[in-house]
Amino acid sequence: MTAQTVDTSKLWDLIGDIRFGMLTVRGTDGRLYSRPMTTQNGEADRGAVIWFFMARSGQPLADLTASPDVNVAYADHDSDKYVSASGTARLVEDPVKKQELWSAAAKAWFPGGVEDPDLALVAVLVADAEYWDVKANKAVQIFKLAKAALTGEPPTDLAKHRRVRLR
């Protein structure tokens, strides 16, 4: 499958309602670690950047500072939407952006608010993404899977699968 350059609206249609993404980073020990992170993007921030708040004192920030290549995976099993986005993460020192993205939920993790000295703003600059968007209802999916099991031929047309290049 070749990557195609597209706008980001389809990706945000798929992940816009999914609050948590699994952020995968390479640890300082060379291993991969995935952690659930709350996506901070608002309606106005639906471009090729995914925003997260992190603790400056935490291991995830230390890991991505040492090795900024990351992946963020989103899954919504109920609506059969799946997205995997890879790119480069970086710490952003922008108090205006922090304030813009701040939410009451973030206060649970950072009680000092947007001025909390441990609050770090991280941008994931998405370079490539893949998505799977299943439009068939569950009955059609089961039928196609059963047919594939009987015929030995992999199921086709279960999901719209695309790879997109954003940068």
Structure report:
The chain contains five helices and eight strands. It is an alpha+beta fold and 167 residues long. Strands 1, 2, 3, 4, 5, 6, 7 and 8 form an eight-stranded mixed β-sheet that branches. The relative contact order is 0.21. Helices cover 25% and strands 38% of the residues.
Could you outline the blueprint of secondary structure elements for this entry?
Layout: E1 4-5, H1 9-15, E2 20-26, E3 32-38, E4 49-55, H2 59-66, E5 69-76, E6 81-92, H3 95-101, H4 104-109, E7 119-133, H5 138-151, E8 160-165
Parallel strand pairs: 1-8
Antiparallel strand pairs: 2-3, 2-5, 4-7, 5-6, 6-7, 7-8
Structural features:
8-stranded mixed sheet
- Low-confidence region ranges: 1-5, 137-148
- Tell the overall outline: globular
Q: Helix tally? A: 5
How far apart are the first and last residues' alpha carbons, in Å?
Answer: 18 Å
Number of strands: 8
SSE-based structural type: alpha+beta
Task: Indicate the proportion of strand residues.
Answer: 35-45%
Mean of pLDDT: 83
Q: Helix proportion of residues, in percent?
A: 25-40%
What is the radius of gyration? 18 Å
Reported for the largest beta sheet, the result is: 8 strands, mixed
SSE ordering: EHEEEHEEHHEHE
At a glance:
It contains 5 helices and 8 strands. It has helices at residues 9-15, 59-66, 95-101, 104-109, 138-151, and strands at 4-5, 20-26, 32-38, 49-55, 69-76, 81-92, 119-133, 160-165.
